[in-house]
Structures are given as C-alpha cells and as structure tokens.
Amino acid sequence: MEILITNDDGIYAEGIYALASAMRKVGNVTVVAPDTQRSAVGHAITITDPLRVVEAKRNGKFFGYAASGTPADCVKLGIKAIMKKRPDLVVSGVNLGGNQAYNILYSGTVSGATEGALLGIPSMAVSLDTFVKPDFAPSAAFAAKLAVQMMKRRVPAGTLINVNVPHLPAKRIKGVRVTNQSRTCFNDWFDKRKDPHGNTYYWMTGDYKPEDPDKASDLNALLDGYISVTPIQFDLTDYKFVPELENWGLKFR
Question: Which domains can be identified in the chain, with CATH numbers?
Fold first, then answer.
C-alpha cells in the first residue's frame, strides 16, 4: 500500500511524525507537508507563487518533503509531481486540536484529506482533541488500523473519513462511534488594540461552548470518551431546497 501523508501543523510537528511511524507498519509512506504552520487555511491552493520543496530530516534521517504551500498544495504535489506511484491512500494529521463540527470548513488538516478525495483517492483526516500535553500514539495507532479497513472496504467517491480522538490514555478510550458532523461553532469576536506606533489592529478571539443536542454528533462522541469517525462529502448542494428555488421562477429578463 502506497500512503501519502500530510498535515497543516508543519512537517516538523510531532503529530505527523507519530502518524508516519504508525503508517510505515502497514505500507510505504511518503510525507509531503508544509514547511511551517498552516493551520486554518482551509482548502486554499497556491496559484500566484512558485512552490518550493526541500528534503526534510528528523533525527538525522530523511523524513519527507517540506513544501512552501498549503496542505492541499502538498497533496497535489505529492500525487502529481513527487511520488512515482499514485498513492492508494491519503492521510492528513495527526492534528493538534480537534476538527469537529463547523471547524472542518476552516481546517487545513481536513482539506488535505479533501484534496485526496477530490483526486479520487481514499482519504482520511486525523485529529487529537487537545492543545495541552498531547499523546499522539493512540491517534496514530487507530489511523493505521483504519487505513487497513479502508483498503479492504469501499469508500464512496468524493467521500473522506474525518477522525477525532479524545485526549485520553488509550485504556480510557471507550471505543469508536460513527458520527454526524455537529453544527456547533465558535462564538468569535475581535479585540481592538493599538500598536506602539498608534495604529489600530484587530486580534480575533472567542470561546466555544461544547454543547449539542444531537447525541450522534462528533462533538458528543468526544465528550463521551469515544473516537469519532465521520464520513464527509463536499457536494455542497442543498438538494431539498432545489425544487423550491425552481418555483421562484427566476428570470434574467
């Protein structure tokens, strides 16, 4: 199995190192990841600047390719320019911080997997729901098990698997739930400040209330101590609304 790995935390993040180590037990791994932090870039791609790629080392050994672009750029580069064989699987992560609910729309981690799915390759995104003292081993180990399943089973074209792992020791993780995407989101605002030269600038901040009445949501799975596994597709058409919109009788003239 040929596996392409990327992330949005950058090629030197601990999460991608743990993921690559686990994935090497089930397949041949190629790492193509951003050369620095690219969190919350969504599905951005680079079209006005060249993409620069250098070999990256970890512990004195070749680890992968560090690219100057976004996670989606990295997946495109990996598939279309770097890898000699087309990958059987694209895996993005392990991300520092959860990517559940509406967070997925901003997530570079999820977008790395989305790009793989758009290119017709089974893909998953993996995130650990913490920013404090992360232990990436359980997330990486589960991702490797899921990778084997994804090769045995069929993932529909245009669908990716979004995995979120609770921040718990492996023995305290209760199991796995197949979930829906929660509809919760951040309540954000902007803190208005002055720089040393008297110029106004704004710094986005906010809070997040982890509450969702949908018991089948990814958010509630995490809160209950379960790994959340959500199938996501990015056909954004609201099919239920199409007939009503047709009845509007829209005309150009």
Answer: 2-183+213-246 (3.40.1210.10)
What is the model's pLDDT at position 49?
96
Q: Is the pTM of this model over 0.85?
A: yes
**What's the 3-state SS for the chain?**
CEEEEECCCCCCCHHHHHHHHHHCCCCEEEEEEECCCCCCCCCCCCCCCCCCEEEEEECCEEEEEEECCCHHHHHHHHHHHHCCCCCCEEEEEEEECCCCHHHHHCCHHHHHHHHHHHCCCCEEEEEEECCCCCCCHHHHHHHHHHHHHHHHCCCCCCEEEEEEEECCCHHHCCEEEECECCCCCCEEEEEEEECCCCCEEEEEEEECCCCCCCCCEHHHHHHCCEEEEEEEECCCCCCCCHHHHHCCCCCCC
**Tens-place pLDDT, residues 75-119:** 999 999 999 999 999 999 999 999 999 999 999 999 999 999 999
